Known about the structure:
elongated, alpha+beta, 8 helices, 42% helix, two-stranded antiparallel sheet, five-stranded mixed β-sheet
Amino acid sequence: xxxxxxxxxxxxxxxxxxxxxxxxxxxxxxxxxxxxxxxxxxxxxxxxxxxxxxxxxxxxxxxxxxxxxxxxxxxxxxxxxxxxxxxxxxxxxxxxxxxxxxxxxxxxxxxxxxxxxxxxxxxxxxxxxxxxxxxxxxxxxxxxxxxxxxxxxxxxxxxxxxxxxxxxxxxxxxxxxxxxxxxxxxxxxxxxxxxxxxxxxxxxxxxxx
Length: 209
């Protein structure tokens, strides 16, 4: 496989943050939901379901149009070798294998070097990459890589703990199952003490989640 082919495959398999929001044909989606209700043995015209197709179509449009993953950095020249961890972020995404929800609890850490990242931007970045058909492993890497691009270096760690309804309500139906993914970039991948500090803080923030 040539390098050009490899790059093309990567851009297709892993959507980049600047990808255009998909155009959702809400009228067509609503028609498809009506057809689904019929095939499920329901009457889409009955009370309670009459406006359901339109509500579902509107939700899909909103879900697939998240805010941009913009982030702002502020100069702070007197900071160095200080671990910053932002946790408590919870976002909803959809498993692309079964199109069922997954709730992702996110913690991100970095070491400032002359500047700090605006705190609210961490949540916006997480929401941006959650607003699509996803897998947790890809989501974790996309959040970490985007933060690294914002700061211009790779000293970023991201840990995600997910509850997947495709495992909780179907298949093995294990409601207590949790999936944890961790990305260690730059110093977090070479400094075991720094990595352990981050994981300890992240795990403490998750608690019993």
